[in-house]
Amino acid sequence: MARLPYVQPQDAPETVRKALERGPDLNIFRLVAHAESAFVPWLRFAATLLTQLQLDPLLRELAILRVAALTPGAEYEWVQHEAIARAVGAGDAQVQGARSGKGLEGDEELVARFTEQVVSDARPDDATWSRASERFSPRELVELLLVIGQYMMLGRVMASTQIDLDEPLGEGVIEQGRRAVGDS
Hints:
Helix content is 68%, strand content 0%. By secondary structure, the chain is mainly alpha-helical.
């Protein structure tokens, strides 16, 4: 059972209520809604990371899964994003590689290593940075860092609050998230 109650739309301020009613009915949204003034801007940021990046969606999801695998108590993040990763083309080997950090190749291996180093050391080592900067544009590198940071933050929120698992929504959560911030 979660350490905090979930915000119910009918009990929330109007802007939060509207966003909750339009978005996916997920515990993470009803939990973060406690941060009333940050909630809608955070939803916009989160939706941007899932819909408007130059970074390849599969690589984005592998990075998110690697963050979840490295964050004790972030099973919620894993459950939701494994389904999204599969919806954008990840197979069993890629999902397992994101969990273990082993068995990936090429860009996928590079993103997993880059992510692991950012999570554990706050930055990638010089060799990993050099390889990543040769392969990815500055925009993609900053997007990757923003994705890693966003999901490190969420993983810690999830772990600290002991959020209850929801059934995975897969890629449908992305479109529902876009609707949640549409008129806010």
